[in-house]
Write the structure tokens for this entry.
Amino acid sequence: MKNQFVKKLSAVSSAAVMAAALLAGCGSSSQTAASTAPAAASTEAAAQTASTEAAAQTASTGAAADTASSTAAAASSAAAVSGEVTAAGSSALLPLAQAAAESFMKENPDCVITVNGGGSGEGLKQVADGSVDIGDSDVFAEEKLDADAAAKLVDHEVCTITMAPVVNASLDIDSLTTDQLISIFTGKTTNWKDVGGPDEDIVLVTRPSSSGTRALFKQYALNGEEEASNESLETDDSGTLLQTIEQNEGAIGYVALSYLVNNTDVKAVGIDGVAPTLENTYNGTYKVWGYEHMYTNGEGSDAAQAFINYISGDAFADQLEGMGYGVASKMSDEAKKAHDAQ
Amino acid sequence: MESTILNFGTQADAAEHWPAAFKREDSMANVHASKKTKGYYFRKEYLGRGIATGCGLFIIILTLAIGAFLLVRGTGTFTRFHHSILEFLFSSDWSPVDTATGSGGGVGAAVFIAGSLLTCGLALLMITPFAIGAAIFMTEIAPKAGERIFRPAVEIFVGIPSVVYGWIGLTVLVPWIKNVFHPKMGGYSVLAASIVLAVMIFPTITTVAADAIRSTPEAFRKAGYGLGSTRWQVIYRIVLPASRSGIMTGIILGLARAFGEALAVAMVIGKTRAFPKNLLSPTNNLTAEIAADMGNTASGGEANMALWTMALLLFLISMLFIFLIHLISGKGIPQVEN
């Protein structure tokens, strides 16, 4: 009799545990599963930035003075915000958004900000249907959503991102012309000796066709020419792309500057003699860059607005440049004009 | 999979014994209060039975729901964007439009389908002789060592996550192929993907085949020895033919695992969207392409739908494998009466 009771009790309780586990699994799986991997990668990136901040600041000499003067004003305006903010989307923006969330929460202890990856398409979809407060994207919402859904979203251009062609560090190539670059990425040039390098086969390393990085590189570096997908190695993320380039002497690919901070295993290649630096991006001589977007559904909550203002504001600008991103407000008129013309 | 079946088996056995136990206790309970009978039966019988039935139905509904969802999403390429099934299966023009409403691109998935078939087929060719050899060794030739050392070792292999296999492949196999054969695109190749898959499905085939060989009736072997056969003759002429359906089941289960594997393959296959020229050239497959593009494509757009169609194709292929297993195991192992 007692034995039976114990059996029954354990059966019922184990069923209850199973049911609870199922519910918990359904509730959280959609977001957490996608974000764990990028989260791990970005903490590493954040740790690196602290040490490299000083080095990267030299790239933005002109900007240092006005940043310092406006820091005090920004700090006082960001007082006492509370609430929960969730953000998801672009993996290119993820390391920055996470670093910004961390320091924003330090200043506003009542605020909880959760940042996930998942890709630009996923971020836009989730902000449009209300599952997150902020959708991070490399591209305009109109490109990934239908017109009705895109019209409800408000675009915030929080920073700029500069893309650079990269090659193996041992390859004797420092700059390519736009024509050479197009010829290489469309598969017409297959040996480095044809563009002034050593006698070495060219190995193309690209990103998936839905990638925001690829779309930007295609539009501004390759003048809209489609890459030769049938002759290239495709990598899921910029980290894997860099690893592939490190391992193959003749490899060429492209990544955002944020991935090149403190990296000596690959080297960035100039385009038409212009080196891919933040300075050259600001003054308009380097052309391969784009805005990173944070979309809100309508104006967004107070906390979401405060966070977006913080990440694009002056107080965070130094850290932002230290991570390899560009400050949107520093873009010169020439740069914007040349960008819009493309 | 095997253990699930076993669990269901023991539950069913227990259920058969319940009524007898109830009768005994029932008569005791009746002495005290016959009014409580209804609640008593609820607690002792219907509650447990209800939970088990509920869980079972839930799983069945879940499976059907996933199938229906994939069917609805996956057929969008043909119904909403008006591509033909033949184009999807046999064209290699993959250029779907990645916007929410745009259409008119190509959705030919032939490169990915060929990549999946080729890598899985090669993996099977490579590993099946080794897997069956290992199964024979651990059951017939060295059953004691097999049971104590070999079997646990093989079972550990099953539990290793695929990302680990992929990572090892990326750091050991890919540079090795690159240094030995010097292919143009580095070591990323069909060969690397096939070897990684072969290592991954080895334990699946071995354990299922070993179970099948072990369950060959002892009388078969004794009859063989009685006729003067050597041990190898008994293995080759009697045990292997008798356990053929079990071994085939193991091979198909291994093939199903290889077909569904995304991560490990994606890391070493190179993901070049072209038919491979030889074993050393890179290509792409269904699962790696889905994983690479699913997050960034516009939801409901042509590119997104084409990926869902590939997911539906994978679902149908795995259903085909399950169907084949049932077809084969339906013939069953020959039984002898004791």
Remarks:
- The interface with chain A takes residues 25, 43-44, 47-48, 51, 55, 98-101, 174-175, 178, 184-186, 188, 266, 270-274, 282, 284, 291-301, 303-304 of chain B (CB under 8 Å).
